[in-house]
Design a protein that fits this description.
The strands form 4 sheets. Strands 2, 3, 4, 5, 6, 7, 8, 9 and 14 form a 9-stranded antiparallel beta sheet that branches. This protein has a 4-stranded antiparallel beta sheet with strand order 1-21-20-19, with no helix packed on it. It has a 4-stranded antiparallel beta sheet with strand order 10-11-12-13, with no helix packed on it. The protein is 7% helix and 41% strand. The protein has 3 helices and 21 strands. The protein has 2 domains: 231 residues, no CATH class; 87 residues, no CATH class.
Length: 332
């Protein structure tokens, strides 16, 4: 299980993938939402900040009989020019002010054969949590084997200015020596990260029933939330569920309006190609459509810098869906 992070700044000299573009067109790069473990099926969901300039995209795979499989996520803020991607999390949610990301990091501590003392020792070393606490905080991650897993609480603080000195350090994921976080939520005032108890069943969408409180600044942990605490509700848009046995129609999707400066565009998807088509009212000369990349667009931030899409899988595998959720970064 690896954590993969994008840089705070988009560096065009170190792109992962550069899509074909026309002359004077924006530079486009693509980032898979989930580079980690794949499941039998995968849900795609996303949520925007109120101004639609920040976005959190989640790829949520599930195993056989909907067993828990860690998620991958992509977060980006076009106002700050910040983006990051991470794999192997049980849950992730933005704070109400969109200045923090809270997540529960996923670790396996017992393999399917029922032996795993070596995994406990390794996870203890990586998390700074003693093996007794890890064992006590572990939960069944399969209904058909002896597999067990744990969650570790973590946060990312979104820098106001990613170009400022030491911004990369301050935005790096901070993990706490706390074996909790199967589900994570923020309190309504954004001051506390609520950590949900472990699942009672080995089911991917099993909710938490009780919550503890973590101060994201000091790392102080309290066993329960204050009685007057209210958890913030985050509404996610449920996108498609990808299944290797079900084909996905990539021929066309509704246009997505965006605005870049004084210009307006539609993000269009036709015949498996995503383009930017100018729609600026009253413009005498409109640029030719600009190619973003292959696939089908699902949503986009207000300025079109980040486009959520389904795209052909970079490394096709017959045991996985033929397409995967990605985010195209459009650098104007």
């Amino acid at each position: 299980m690896l954590i993969a992070l994008g840089g705070c700044l988009v560096d065009s000299s170190k792109k992962e993938t550069t899509a074909d573009t026309t002359h004077l067109a924006p530079v486009v790069t693509v980032t898979p939402v989930n580079r980690g473990t794949q499941g039998m099926a995968e849900r795609v969901m996303w949520t925007f900040s109120p101004d639609r300039k920040s976005v959190l995209v989640i790829a949520d795979p599930g195993g056989v009989e909907n067993e828990p499989v860690p998620n991958g996520f992509f977060f980006a803020d076009e106002s700050r020019g910040f983006q990051t991607q991470m794999d192997s999390v049980w849950d992730v949610v933005p704070s109400p002010d969109w200045k923090w990301i809270g997540f529960g990091r996923a670790y396996s501590v017992v393999g399917g054969a029922g032996t795993g003392a070596d995994l406990l020792t390794d996870v203890s070393r990586r998390t700074s949590i003693d093996t007794a606490t890890l064992r006590a905080g572990s939960f069944a991650s399969s209904g058909m084997s002896m597999s067990r897993a744990v969650a570790q609480a973590g946060v990312i603080h979104i820098p106001e200015n990613p170009r400022a000195s030491a911004a990369s350090d301050s935005a790096a994921p901070r993990l706490f020596p706390v074996a909790r976080g199967w589900r994570v939520r923020w309190t309504a005032d954004g001051s506390t990260l609520a950590l949900g108890n472990s699942p009672s069943r080995a089911v991917d969408n099993e909710p938490s029933q009780t919550w503890s409180a973590l101060d994201p600044v000091t790392g102080a942990l309290h066993g329960t939330l204050p009685a007057n605490s209210k958890l913030a509700e985050v509404k996610f848009t449920q996108g498609p569920t990808l299944d290797r046995s079900l084909p996905v129609d990539m021929s066309k999707s509704p246009p997505i309006p965006i605005q870049h400066g004084n210009q307006t565009f539609n993000v269009q998807s036709e015949r498996g190609v995503i383009t930017l088509v100018e729609t600026t009212p009253g413009s005498a000369t409109k640029a030719a459509p600009r190619v973003v990349g292959a696939g089908m667009a699902l949503a986009a931030t207000a300025g079109g810098r980040y486009i959520i899409a389904l795209a052909p899988r970079a490394r096709p595998d017959p045991n996985e869906p033929a397409v995967e959720p990605v985010v195209y970064t459009v650098t104007w």
